[in-house]
Amino acid sequence: SSHEYKLNFKKSKEACLIYIQDALLQKQWKRAAEFLTCYVESLEKDYSREHIGPSEMIWRIGTEILWHHSQSNMKEFNCFMEQMKTLGVKRYLKVCLEHVFHLLCNGQIDEAYQNLSLAESWRFGEQTAIQDKEMKLIQAYRGLLDYYSWSKQKNILLEHGEDGFSDLAVEQEMHSYFRKAAVNLKEIIKIPGVWDIFVKCYVDLLEFYGDHNEARQVLNEYAYNSKFPANPNAHVYLYQFLKRQGESKKSLISALKILHDIVPSHELMIDFNTMLQKSKKRKKRRLGLEVIFAALDYAGWKENAKAWSCLARQVKQIVISEKHLDWIKQEWNSRKDWWPAFHFSRYLAKRNWQENKNLSYEKALVAGILLGKDCKYFKYVSHQGCKAQLKRFRMLKKFVNRHNPVYLRISG
């Protein structure tokens, strides 16, 4: 019967998709391509209306297969993408964007720019208004490529420019790219979202032409506008800009404080800690200790000698002065149950000693203060250092032994 035929057809089509999915997951690109061919042929007899249309399914699966298939090439990929553009106007701009990304990944910058220009001139009734966001992305990426061309001309001017007409021609071409890039980049970063690369390029343009006020305004808006999603990079870019402009320590600390709240493990926390330690204000020095302790909570910092040096320096200063031992105690109370195994095991002591003696020295000092002279890490490293007749390790051992009562006060 007609109903039974449609039911069987639907089952076979779904089975074909499952086989394709299985082949994709196992990275069997040739097998996936064969099943996709069967799926495309079966669609000629399919008159159902699904939420995700067949053309989108073919586009997404076909793109993945062609990108990974050992026998595919850019000519075939370009041909496939051009066919996909004609299958559905609702996805036209999305397909164009994906096509551009693949061209850029293959170094075909001129072809990518040409595709963006064609996509920008695309019009199709009401669909043009519906796909407004995609159109803005098209324009933004064209602005990014204009920035790339501007950057190339700038380098030519700075490195090989000579007085005369050739120099003037390069400069005029550079300004032309600047105007086109600036217009499109400025538009996209007005929309709430994560636009890191676009913001960086736009700020670079503004800084080159000395428009520092506009650059500052853009970065402040990107970092502090509540309509934009929380983005650590926004605060990094603002900090780097302020640093280039020679801004006050107060401004730099303010920018990094927010970054610390969002990502306490960010690499700039060493810069943050260093600035805070140098401050005359007790509150900021206290924050500096909190910052470096928080950073070392993360596995990526376990063997960061600079971070351990920052912590060792501040802990040593506090122990010698015997002021603010409560700072150390407060930080240690929440870590004393897991830091010993995480940072100060005998196994780590041996490995750190073999790989980086500076690291093992800084860690041993911290371990000795926090866990006392009987700490496994401290005992192993100080013994190896004294055995190797290294003066700094003998001094380390004396320092920890002399201040062992501090450990008792910290441990409570």
From TrEMBL:
Taxonomic source organism: Pomatostomus ruficeps (Chestnut-crowned babbler)
GO BP term, example: transcription by RNA polymerase I
Top-level taxon: Eukaryota
Annotated PANTHER family: TATA BOX-BINDING PROTEIN ASSOCIATED FACTOR RNA POLYMERASE I SUBUNIT A (PTHR32122), TATA BOX-BINDING PROTEIN-ASSOCIATED FACTOR RNA POLYMERASE I SUBUNIT A (PTHR32122:SF1)
Name listed for the protein in its UniProt record: TAF1A polymerase
GO terms under cellular component: RNA polymerase I transcription regulator complex
Family matches, as InterPro entries: SL1/TIF-IB_Component, TAF1A
Pfam families on file: TAF1_subA (PF14929)
